Amino acid sequence: MKTSRAKHQIAGTTVFDGEQARKGYALNKMCFSFNSAQNRAEFLQDEPAYCDKYSLNDEQRAAIASRDVLRLLAAGGNIYYLAKFAGIFGLDMQEIGAQQSGISKDAFKAALIEAGK
Which domains does the chain have, with CATH numbers? Predict the structure, then answer.
């Protein structure tokens, strides 16, 4: 007997599940490559060619070009790999969280502090 599982829905959130993992494989593989300083430099030198190297689709290329974390997540990006991409541009996890939340970094930090009380 085959059972079906309803896809988890969290308002305003892209759930990273098996479908998203398959969708984002090339994007996440490229972002993982940014562990190497040489690869980061190669990306910065010729971004379109570097995206070609990993066969990113149009949605992923547009998300990379826009530097929009929410678009990257929707394109199959995994936040842990995307952090490597964001690091190229000096973004930290609080800035990524603020972008995901639609608020400033200072407001995001304040919300973290308040949540910890």
Answer: 18-91 (1.10.700.10)
